[in-house]
Amino acid sequence: MEQGHNKKENMAYLGNSLKALASLSALGGVLMMSGCGESVSNTEIAVNQQLIFSDYQTTVNPIFDKDIEGKTCSSSGCHSIGNGSGGGLKLYPNAALDSFEMDFNYRVAQSLSNLTNPDQSKLLLEPLAGTFSITGSHAGGDIFPNVNDPDYLTILAWISNPEEVTGSSSSNSGGTP
């Protein structure tokens, strides 16, 4: 008996869902027709932004491989993909240009970037002196002594200048297809 009751409920739910879908479709038709007679531009509308891969390779990734007081951000024990302990930032050390490893590093760095408020990016805040993120302070110490640090400014410039990606464009999405 209960199984039949569930089947009736499921059919009623499906019927109501189809009615709601039909109503939305009708509304969409009305909205589309309200633009009749007006010229329609075929220009593409930006639907997304992404950071520029080529700029990452030449300006940002070298910062992660840079010697800072005898260690690098991408080294083991820090943010190395192999055995680093550095939270969400996992990097391949010394990634070659246009390699899988470089593409991986780019995507991880982009995921820690705030394109709406670049200076609020975890990629910048975590290693900045005097900041304390929701996960705590940077275990590797203060990498950027202040917001005028050249490496901080380089990463900030990269995050501040994303490219618009349209529905039919996927350029600079990374080094590997």
How would you describe this structure to a colleague?
The chain has 177 residues and is mainly alpha-helical. The chain folds into two domains: 1-30; 48-166, no CATH class. 41% of the residues lie in helices and 5% in strands. It has a two-stranded antiparallel ribbon with strand order 1-2. Helix 2 crosses helix 3 (100-111). Residues 20-46 and 169-173 have low confidence and may be disordered.
Total number of strands? 2
Low-confidence stretches: 20-46, 169-173
Mean pLDDT: 74
* Arrangement of strands in the largest sheet: 1-2
SS-based class: mainly alpha
Domain count: the total is: 2
Proportion of residues in extended strands: 5-15%
Tell me the distance between the termini. 55 Å
The largest pleated sheet is described as:
2 strands, antiparallel
Shape label: globular
One letter per element, helices H and strands E, the order comes to HEHHHHE
Tally of contiguous helical segments:
5
Helix content, binned percent: 40-55%
What value does the Rg take, in angstroms?
24 Å
